[in-house]
């Protein structure tokens, strides 16, 4: 038989084999790698989604926490995993900032993964210690600009959402503030509650309960519209900061080379999860909501990730912030 015919038959056999494999997927437990410690906002989102996807896929979907280096250790592990649909990756906005923040990455934020779909956009809130002098966001901006050498801004470390929001804020008001980095949102919030630092910008998933209890002051949310769980807090645009907008989005990925039928199957399971009444209720309690169905797709996710990399790279480079 001619070589060309043999190659054609081999190709047909491979396609048929892949299709059959994908049709039976999954046949065992699926693991979702979260590149942060358990108990954080990304971990919470992952566990809610994984629990719901388990029902659709008829196999257990579990979460494994692989923290360290701003999420890049977990990302690198998934990038090197077998592209069989059994090792997935759930990450937040950090997937789009890592290329600019880290001088050397063992993976490519776009080319090393197959995007499955976006999950949710978590709003950020500008909050301060309970006795901070500023009464509203306009006064906050004026106060920090006038006292920038004295005011302390807390963040959860290089590459964290609070760090990124702070950089964008400082760029917007054209002022360099004294920043105090922590090893996570927990200790940063503890010091804000204790009055050791002045203010920070953090996700509603971490601030809503503290705001409602009156333990901290809230000045603005960083979305175009007000947040349903915090309706009394104005947006940054309403408060006078123009087009300032930051949302901590979360997305689901598979390793590059994962067969399209499997990616599509996972995307459909994700879309079902985002319509799950329990997921929607828990998201609402955390101050967020699932993305629209047309954003929970591979193509939409890929395009959005690229746009976010293009958005954050010049901001990070201008700030001169790098992590090894």
UniProtKB/TrEMBL annotation:
Nucleus listed as a keyword: no
Protein's recorded name: Tripartite-type tricarboxylate transporter receptor subunit TctC
Pfam families: TctC
Record Gene3D superfamilies: Bordetella uptake gene, domain 1, Periplasmic binding protein-like II
Signal peptide: 1-22
UniProt similarity note: Belongs to the UPF0065 (bug) family.
Keyword Signal carried by entry: yes
Organism name: Noviherbaspirillum aridicola
Protein keywords: Signal
Lineage of source species: Bacteria, Pseudomonadati, Pseudomonadota, Betaproteobacteria, Burkholderiales
């Amino acid at each position: 038989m001619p070589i060309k015919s043999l190659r054609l038959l081999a190709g047909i056999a491979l396609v048929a084999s892949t299709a059959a494999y994908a049709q039976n997927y999954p046949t065992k437990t699926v693991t979702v790698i979260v590149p942060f410690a358990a108990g954080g906002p990304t971990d919470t989102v992952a566990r809610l989604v994984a629990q719901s996807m388990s029902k659709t896929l008829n196999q257990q979907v579990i979460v494994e926490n692989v923290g360290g280096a701003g999420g890049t250790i977990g990302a690198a592990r998934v990038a090197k995993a077998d592209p069989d649909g059994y090792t997935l990756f759930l990450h937040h906005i950090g997937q789009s900032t890592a290329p600019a923040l880290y001088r050397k990455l063992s993976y490519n934020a776009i080319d090393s993964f197959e995007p499955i779909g976006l999950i949710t956009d978590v709003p950020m809130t500008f909050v301060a210690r309970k006795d901070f002098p500023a009464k509203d966001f306009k006064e906050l901006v004026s106060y920090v600009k006038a006292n920038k050498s004295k005011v302390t801004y807390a963040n959860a470390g290089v590459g964290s959402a609070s760090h990124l929001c702070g950089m964008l804020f400082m760029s917007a008001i054209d002022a360099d503030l004294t920043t105090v980095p922590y090893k996570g949102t927990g200790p940063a919030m503890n010091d804000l509650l204790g009055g050791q630092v002045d203010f920070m910008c953090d996700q509603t998933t971490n601030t809503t309960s503290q705001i409602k209890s009156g333990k901290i002051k809230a000045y603005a949310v960083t979305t175009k519209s007000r947040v349903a769980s915090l309706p009394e807090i104005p947006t940054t645009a309403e408060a006078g900061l123009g087009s300032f907008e930051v949302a901590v989005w979360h997305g689901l990925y598979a390793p590059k080379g994962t067969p399209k039928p499997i990616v599509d199957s996972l995307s459909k399971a994700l879309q079902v999860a985002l319509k799950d009444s329990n997921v929607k209720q828990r998201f609402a309690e955390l101050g967020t909501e699932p993305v629209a169905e047309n954003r929970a797709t591979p193509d939409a996710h890929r395009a959005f990730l690229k746009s976010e990399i293009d958005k954050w790279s010049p901001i990070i480079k201008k700030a001169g912030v790098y992590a090894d």
